[in-house]
Sequence to fold (180 residues):
Amino acid sequence: MHVLLFLLLTAKKSLTGLMTGHSIGPIKDVYVLNENNKMTWSATPATAVTWTPLVSRALPAPHFAYSPVVRAGGFIFVSGMVGLDPAHGGLVDGGMAAEVQQILINLSELCKELTFGLEKLMLVRIYCADFSQFGVLNQHWQAFFEGRTPPARTSLGVDALPLGALVEMEFQFAIDSSLP
Fold:
């Protein structure tokens, strides 16, 4: 119990003051494993993690109220992207292939703007509204990551996506938390 409690206290100290911005609030219920391997409640609250929205000129403006890109510590989270053309802000024509290509182009432009590479990309969640075309998605995915280590990936079939899109992808990057 002393080691686990020490880890919780160490985490509390290391999370304090990581960033300025929005706070997800304090975690009020903390459970620890005691020496008898039973979960017990601890009165030691965890420190809030803060997050900061990042402004991107490379991405098309969102159609709804959300932060397209946020940073929390050593992580960058990119909200789900559909195949929007930055030139006009609308969904690209051409179906699944065109939408996947546009999402990956937008992702590449975001990486250039934020000055880190795709090697920092650790997780992608893919939402597909037409799983009969999943092979098309995979062809473009494989071409994009040829010669690179692809990130972890989860793919889900869904009934519908915003703006009538066929595919949406959200991205998570692990970066050096000491960078500004």
